[in-house]
């Protein structure tokens, strides 16, 4: 795994005013396949949270 970005494909650079997020110069941009995979996981989590929220609503 890349030591610069820890496999995240992005690096944070600090300057005087802000933190910049840049594509890792070693690994390059995140492959679309990985982005799709992450989106799927996020969608799953979102669905789980929504299910919990609606269950809570019904309980109240
Ligand atoms: Zn990297």
In short:
With 60 residues, the chain is an alpha+beta fold. It is built from one helix and two strands.
What are the secondary-structure elements, in order, as H or E? Answer: EEH
Mean pLDDT: 92
Helix content: 40-55%
Q: What structural class do the secondary elements suggest? A: alpha+beta
What's the number of extended β-strand segments? 2
Q: Could you name the ranges where pLDDT drops below 50 across 5 or more consecutive residues?
A: none
How large is the share of residues in beta strands? Answer: 15-25%
Strand order, sheet with most strands: 1-2
First-residue to last-residue Cα separation:
47 Å
Number of domains: 1
Biggest β-sheet, characterized? Answer: 2 strands, antiparallel
The ligands bound in this entry are: zinc ion
In angstroms, what is the radius of gyration?
18 Å
**Count of DSSP H/I helices:** 1
Shape descriptor reads elongated
């Amino acid at each position: 795994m890349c030591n610069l970005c820890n496999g995240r494909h992005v690096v944070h650079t600090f300057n005087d005013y802000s933190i910049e997020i840049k594509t890792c110069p070693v690994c390059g941009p995140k492959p679309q396949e990985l982005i799709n995979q992450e989106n799927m996981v996020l969608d799953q989590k979102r669905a789980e949270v929504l299910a919990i929220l609606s269950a809570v609503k019904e309980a109240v």
